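Students often ask why we bother predicting the structure of a whole assembly rather than each chain alone. The short answer is interfaces. A chain on its own may look different once its partners are present, and contacts between molecules only exist in the joint model. In this exercise we take two input lines together and write out one structure for the complete complex. Read the inputs first and try to guess which parts will touch.
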Amino acid sequence: MRRWQFLDSMLFFFVAAGFAGVFSALNPHSTLVIESNFSRSTSAQVFWNSGSGFLEDQSASARIMPGEESTRVRIKENALIKQLRFDPGKQPGSYFFSKITLSRDACLLSVLPFCSIELTQIAPVRTNQVNVGRSGLFKIDASGIDPSVVWSTRGFSHRTWITALLNITLLGILFSFIGLVINGCFSFNGIGCHRSIVNASWAFLIYPLYWVCAEVSAQYFDRISIDRLIFFFSVFIFFSGFLLEYINRQGRQHYALRLTLVVLLVGLISPEVLFHFGLINQWRFGSEPNAYHWQINRSFSDNFNHSSLRYQKEITQIGELTEKGSRFLSDRATSLYITASENIYLVNSMPHHRTDGSLSEEEMEDLCNTEIREAEFSSLMRLRQVSLLVINHDEQNPHVAQSCLTPVLAQLVGKYPDRFNHLFSGPNLSLYQLVR
Amino acid sequence: MREVFFQGLTSYFYFGFFLLLPGYCLRLVLSQWVGAGVLSGRGWANSLIESFILSILITSATGILFSLAGLGLTIAKFWLAGLIAAEVLMYALMRWSKRTQSQRHIPLQAGVIDVVFALFITVVFMGMVSQGGLLDFLADGWWHLAYVSQIISDNSLFITKYPTVGGETASVIYPPLWHLQLALISEASSISPAVLWHFVAPLNVVILLLAFYQLTIELTRSKKIAFLAVVLHIFLIGGLISYFRISSWPGNVSYITLYFGLALVFRLSTMSPDANDRADSKKSSLKEKSYFYFLLVTSIFLMVGLHGVEVALFLLTLFSFWICTGLFYPPGQMPLQIVADLKHIRLFIGLMSLVGFILALTMFKSRYVFLFNSPPAFQPYLSLILPVGILIYIASYPWVMRFFVGSETKQIIKVAYFILLGLMLAGILDWQHAVELFFPISDPIGRHVPRDFQGILGNWLFLPFWEHQLRGGMLFSGVLGMLVGFVLVFVRKNRATLFIFSTSSLVLLVLLSPYFFTLTAFVIPLASVYRVGLLMFTPLVLAVGLSMLLTKHSVES
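Now the answer. The structure tokens for the assembled complex follow.
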């Protein structure tokens, strides 16, 4: 082996060690993967014992949905985990699992038993209010309201540096081998390719930046488990960059740097593109309302059913039947829908548009009370110069259906029909005049 | 549902009549004066925006005059029809006489990219028809619709009752020109304002994208980059300006004029007549320039009448371009094109500041009296002194360097200057606030939007809540755009990268420094200062950045 080839292989090994070290350092925790098949949803809790027993602050909860589900619970513990306790739910009954696996996030390649342990394959060390059995699926029969199963994880738990060392060894050998193959395939004529290797190392940036984004988004949503995929992709970009740099070694076009930057740029904006394409249903980095943005899965019927468009004809009819400038009471959404087209005024405005004539927050609370007396209601309506009542019966539009006011108004109208003069009824809207 | 949908589709006939046709016809008439081949040479996208802007000008002028004269708005449609007929007649007569027609011609350079772009814009328009502009949750859009209804009810631009809740009010409580457009269309078509609101969004989105396309072309002289920027604009989440589903709101319509106004500023400085041109060609060029000045004044007028805040954003953009340019070119070494840009920009800033100053002393006197008696201006006045001091320091760079031309100490002075500037900027930024963008704290300081707090010397300061429509735009394309924006100018220095650097710096300082945020409240209402965030122009930054990465020579210098 020529000296350059040996040096290049060593350089490949050190780059691999860098890649593997970064991955191990950024993933010090473990993940419990619960593959279940429940008949009802339940809230499971996982406790881990790192020497001081099972404590509430050393636990994590997860909602497990009915049917075949795979739920991931992150176990944020740097110390050795000696035991793991699993509470499947708070109700007696049977809980079925195809697999419960505890795995180290830092493991690049799944080398058993260093990296994962299938808990459903080993006998629990302790159980509470449960019988554990296996008939195709792993089954926990809970007889009480606090069922739990405890497994020992001693054989699995090791220090992070052992996993890091394993990663460095595996990836180092792989890189050095690839380096040797490349050296063998290309005729380097005694010229080392160390400059290309160093230039291609910009790909180091990809995984840490992805990790930062994933951590930021994890505050709002469960973390997406594509870490290894992104990591191996960064390795792929490293080799692509290396080849580009080597092929164009005469010029100084910084192809590897450019390639990495393009990947980073496109990668960082990709959640926004996926959001518009409906592949991410909620904005992952905060409380950005979906409604502001176009999304490919939104249709005209969504807007029609959740806005005033659905009642437009009825609103026009109400406008024709009422005196211009009169005031009406309705739920907030319907109030806004009507004033958007007709010349009658609401009293139930949005807080920042309130004026002297609007209902206050306290008055709205009074009106939402199902026990409100008719005299009290009439007095308030007189005070606010309200002469009309509009009841929206729509149950599809959440802004209308969730209003606390609509059932109260419907109840009052039903209870005191002589106090409300019925003027109009459409498929959704009913209009009444208050009798003084 | 089908009935409402088809009613909505018929509204496009009325949108065409009110929002495009009057301006298009006026443009035809003016093209005979400027030179037929001159205006058409700038392409269909430009024609569409100009028609839109001029139409709003015509309908607004009609609405204002008819309301002032007490004639009511119901006859405005007949007046407009008559006006359009007159414009067409005038155009025909001018063509027939051919006396005023210029021989100057700008060749229309249509290529495959133009066809692809046109098809792409058509697809966007069709897609947006189903997305619409009527939000399925309760927001201020309904208040704007009630304003439209009130204008229809009063048959005047000047309302007599407060929208939604009724009661006495001032005759103008919000810049009313966009409400006026919808009121005119609703009255003429008998289509409910809510339906119009839903169906006008696709039109506004398309015009916004076309205006952005024009701005990018003026800055980069590249259709490919402009196309890429438009695609990114569609897909990126970039704060208010990217909220396509609220494109029917007055603020978003005003962004069209902001983009186009900026495009016109840069277009005007690239129109210097060639000394070798013939006399009639020079004359035509001058006429064309006058026409673009007219369009620019129209755009500024519409920024005021549609929403208001955008005039301040427009000025801030130009001001930051001006002030940053001085940092990058030694005295006497500035390229001619940038010199021409700055000449125009100084003129606009000077004129508009003068107008703003006069308005602040007259029409908005009470507001400014209130402002100078409000917390941002309280003792020890640091909220004013510190940021103004830094601005003066930055602006003084070319003058400082002029003293050291040819001197051996020039390089040392330069390094010292930038180290001091870096220290000042690092000191004036709120780093905790920057961290909160990524890791929000559950109980931020302050009671208001924006949040208020006191500095160490007791001065009142303000900062925006990231939750207030900023985090979505910043994470992560915004942050990325800002970082890329700072780097590009060091890779290649030209009009586009300077523009990008200046706007990125502006946004960084206003959103991260409580001092600059508070200072900006003297030109923009405090609750709207966070809108400076939309000056990041992230799609433009990333399009230029990507093209630099993928090609060798992407942006003309």
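Check your guess against this: The mean pLDDT of chain B is 88.
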